[in-house]
Amino acid sequence: MRFLGIDLGTGSLKLAIVDESGREIASSSAAYSVTSAQPRWAETPVDAWYAALVDAASRLPANERAAVRGIGFSGQMHGVVPTAADGYALRAAMLWPDTRARDLLDAWREPQPNPVAPGMAGPLLRWLASHEPQTAAQTRWALQPKDWLRAKLGGAFVTDASDACATALAKPSGEWDEALIDRLGLPRAWFAPLAASHENGGALSSAAASALGLAAGIPMATGAGDTPCAALGSGLSADGDALLTTGTGGQIVVMCADAPAPVHGLHTYRAATGAWYRMAAMQNVGVALEAVRGWLGYASWRDAYDDAFAANASASVSFLPYLSGERSPWMNPNARGGWLGLGLDDTRGTMMRAAFEGVAFALRAGLDAIRANGTPLDAMLLAGGGSVDPRWRQLLADALRVELHAVDCPNAATRGAALLGGIAAGHWRIGDLASLAPTSTLAATPRPDASLDERHARFIDLYRRTEDWFAIGRESA
């Protein structure tokens, strides 16, 4: 008996098959692009998602696919797919890095239980209603990415609390905020009913089964957002358990038995298990490093790592990674990035090293916000495709001042989705998940480094200075 996890990410779709004990036995992935037809837009045609799913599935062993008895979903959060009544996507999906709606946040009156960012479904749908009224008129469902994919495969039009609570249209509990939706002038009928993440969300259709090489009729779990799925797949369960994930963006997740009090710049969301978590969410991790690698002309990540960590850290060069604005802790969609302090003797290795440090310092800003609100973290689990290189892991440990334990699970979010699929199929119960936690190994212990502390202090000072400068630039634009 096997269970399939589908993780619909920002830049790629990942699959993992786990066995009866929750051990991953096969995986594959397929990439696609985030497009930007206009400045500040971030979109992906949904056909690219489905094509990636079919492609990735074709590279899983046929005998393992034949044994799949449950499917679960993990998906990038916040974005939205406007669809017709049959689930047909009326336009490309609008994604979380999108900032086109940055001038429409005034409708969310302070104080809010969670920060509101332009790339969340609420602001994006408000933009859609005013800028694409014909599409809005045809819309029956405003779906989260993973919910669209599940419906495409034959599932029900439902969502879960972990995804709904991150739309800026729901209460922290995940229940739709009908008063807010009405005040925004959005149709209440757009928003799918709630189901538990592990609840059966429909059965795989014959057409989808044929395309994927699976058996028709397999139960599909409703699924959850990628961050709560990564927490589930990594084994977070107890109050205070913490996880750092580094991918396109970065998240620091701390599990909470009860709903924590709202804090500006931090998020309080529902977990895939129905518990809670506090999160610092940083947009500019892999997305910033990938941009820098391209700008500096590195043919591979290995070359970029080797050059960066062979270079001595510069006492004068800083890199602000805020290429697409920033969420935690600044909540500043106008933030921008770049190098400061460059001299004629600096090399691209110096610049790449500064980029790694800048991303680490941006993560530190989010972690410090969590610490300042009563959670003294000195150890965390570490997951995500952007945290494999041991030199990068060590820099993260040093900059964050935490002990990092790498989860023995290469695809945490995908594994979490597969576990949800196993529950939907009746193989496990929610109470079994703690016993299925993967092992972890010590990845890096923080080392005292006074010069790194000085560079971190300079980084925070530079951000504070440019924060005002970019705000002035926006007002005069």
Short précis:
This protein has helices at 46-58, 62-66, 121-131, 133-138, 145-152, 161-164, 178-183, 206-212, 226-234, 286-296, 301-310, 348-371, 390-400, 412-424, 450-476; strands spanning 2-8, 12-18, 24-31, 43-44, 68-75, 81-83, 93-94, 141-143, 200-203, 219-221, 224-225, 242-246, 250-256, 267-270, 276-282, 318-320, 338-340, 379-383, 403-407, 440-444. It has 477 residues and is α+β, with helices and mostly antiparallel strands.
Could you characterize the architecture of this molecule?
The protein is of the alpha+beta class. It has a domain at 2-227: ATPase, nucleotide binding domain (Nucleotidyltransferase, domain 5, 2-Layer Sandwich), CATH 3.30.420. It is built from 15 helices and 20 strands. The protein has helices at 46-58, 62-66, 121-131, 133-138, 145-152, 161-164, 178-183, 206-212, 226-234, 286-296, 301-310, 348-371, 390-400, 412-424, 450-476, and strands spanning 2-8, 12-18, 24-31, 43-44, 68-75, 81-83, 93-94, 141-143, 200-203, 219-221, 224-225, 242-246, 250-256, 267-270, 276-282, 318-320, 338-340, 379-383, 403-407, 440-444. Strands 14-15-13-12-18-19-20 form a seven-stranded mixed beta sheet. Strands 3-2-1-5-11 form a five-stranded mixed beta sheet, with helices on both faces. Helix 13 links the parallel strand 18 (379-383) and strand 19. The protein starts with a strand and ends with a helix.
